[in-house]
Amino acid sequence: MTFSFFKNLLAVLFIPLLLIGTDLGFRLPILSELDSNKWGVYLVSIAFSALIYLLILFSLITSKANDRKKLNLFLVILFSLFYTLTVVGSYGYFHYTGIMPNFFVFSFMFQEPYNSWTLFLAGLNAKAILGFIFLFSLCVYFLRQVSLLQKPKYLVATASVAGSLILLLSLFFHNNTKFQDQLYVADTNTIVFFNQNLYNAVTGDRLGSAGLQSRNEPGLAPIQRKEKPNVLLIVSESLRRKSMNLYGYQKDTTPFLSSWVKKPKDGKVTVFENAFSNASSTLISVPSILSGISPDQNIAMTHNFPLFWEYGKTLGHSTFFISSHSFRWNNFDGFFKNSGIDYLWNKETSGNPTFNDIGIDDRFTVSEFKKHVLKLKEEGSSFAGVLHFNTNHFPYFIPEGSEHFPVGQDLNAPYDNSVRHLDALMKDVILFLENERLTGHTIILFTSDHGEMIFEHGYIGHIESNHIETVSIPMMVYLPKEYQSWTNHLNQNKSKNVANIDLIPTITDLMGISKEPEIANYLNRLPGTSLLTPVQEDRTIFIANNNETSLYRVGLSFIKSDLHYILRLNSVPTKEELFRFRNDPEEKTNLWEGLADDEKKQIRGLLQDCILCRDLYSSANIYL
């Protein structure tokens, strides 16, 4: 065998060796724990990768043999870029997050290319650029060598068979990927998820994310009440408790809120110390806040139960939802269409350009809120409304000149600046209400849809994690002086575990309508507790991003006393974790492996009555 033979063999095998070698290098401990079914899927992904590579080889050899030099050079560069980006992107993501890029990572790139580009640029450094150039150069060199090989005798027949097998395997992946999204080598993973998102974009299908549907308006009957205070629900996006000075963070991120809760004008504020979201996905958490429905309940309830302002309409309140967000995202506009709301304002209706993520500059939203409330005041109308911010969502863009913490070595600075900017927005809102003498008869509730990870547990964002940073949220309630008798009731729960699903029972209690038979019929089927009544110390707060609306394959978790249990479905193998978050606020010590089998069964048994939980467990071959 000659040197030329080994050179050609290396040229042909370089890409397969790169893919398999890198995958084994990063994921060998994981692969060693796969069962036979998962090994089967993994090997099918390798077969798919080999077939794709075979067609690439044929295209390079054919273009060179037919003396199409420009086409050949173009294909060499194109395929080299594909494999380099695939390997660097997939295993770079795995290195930081512990999971391979899945449907929702590629969906994020499709839906939010600007944010994706921002995140990509943030990860660039000299080492990464040099590594990319080196790997790309190797791919170009070896694929160029492949082009010089002789044209195979049975090229057309072999290519036809390979193409047919690729189509068959593509159908297999299309129907099964959402159940096995961590078992592919890098190029198969990239092709499969790119194809699924492209399929969604072309067909309008929602494979991977069901989205919200149009609602049925409950049509609650009017209620006569002499006292009907205004109710304002303020919802922030991706605001985590951990980064707020109000909750003990060392940086001064909330100067206004920290002072306001101590000496509010015309009333008192109760700050809940241990509040949690029921999902780290906006798609579940916002409807949950507005309806009181938990993600483990039947999705039909979300589309049929009253929303916050529909309770307000029973008292004759003028209602509004003023939001910085795009409502075209996951059909929020269709969901709110039949909600009987008087005034709906969002990114699309505002006509303002995108500023951060898929939302507009929150200063426009505050301005619209002021204008609308002044109009209601002039008309003599009471109101029940929602003010919905966007500032704290990745990539945490804030107006120029608003930076307070220097951005550079401090990875938390961009997010901390967004929290500081939100504090300024809240100051604008509260001082406006005070100046207009509205705080004397306006109840204000403030919360966030979920939290955010800032590189804790190797992750940035919120969708793919149920760790404490993504589910711990701020929550506070302001009551005017005339309702001070309720403050003591709220204060008895300030240190207990509370959740966003408690807001609707609390609001209807504050409105004085919770005992009305028609409304009580709905409230009795909600899992939340009015914060005006004693909250159980050992309650279980369920958290998930998986249901019929949101198919993010993350898993589930629950909070009970000082325990936080997490089932991770987005890891291979499936991982269970248990933390005592009050003594271990960073969740660094996983207690699960130290438990006896009967103790593990006892903890899982707390979810025995949850149908969704049984489905998620069975998909991981764990049975309650």
UniProtKB/TrEMBL annotation:
<dbReference type="InterPro" id="IPR058130">
    <property type="entry name" value="PEA_transf_C"/>
</dbReference>
<protein>
    <submittedName>
        <fullName>Sulfatase</fullName>
    </submittedName>
</protein>
<feature type="domain" description="Sulfatase N-terminal">
    <location>
        <begin position="229"/>
        <end position="513"/>
    </location>
</feature>
<keyword id="KW-0472">Membrane</keyword>
<dbReference type="Pfam" id="PF00884">
    <property type="entry name" value="Sulfatase"/>
</dbReference>
<dbReference type="InterPro" id="IPR052701">
    <property type="entry name" value="GAG_Ulvan_Degrading_Sulfatases"/>
</dbReference>
<feature type="transmembrane region" description="Helical">
    <location>
        <begin position="154"/>
        <end position="173"/>
    </location>
</feature>
<keyword id="KW-0812">Transmembrane</keyword>
<keyword id="KW-1133">Transmembrane helix</keyword>
<feature type="transmembrane region" description="Helical">
    <location>
        <begin position="114"/>
        <end position="142"/>
    </location>
</feature>
<feature type="transmembrane region" description="Helical">
    <location>
        <begin position="73"/>
        <end position="94"/>
    </location>
</feature>
<feature type="transmembrane region" description="Helical">
    <location>
        <begin position="41"/>
        <end position="61"/>
    </location>
</feature>
<dbReference type="InterPro" id="IPR017850">
    <property type="entry name" value="Alkaline_phosphatase_core_sf"/>
</dbReference>
<dbReference type="InterPro" id="IPR000917">
    <property type="entry name" value="Sulfatase_N"/>
</dbReference>
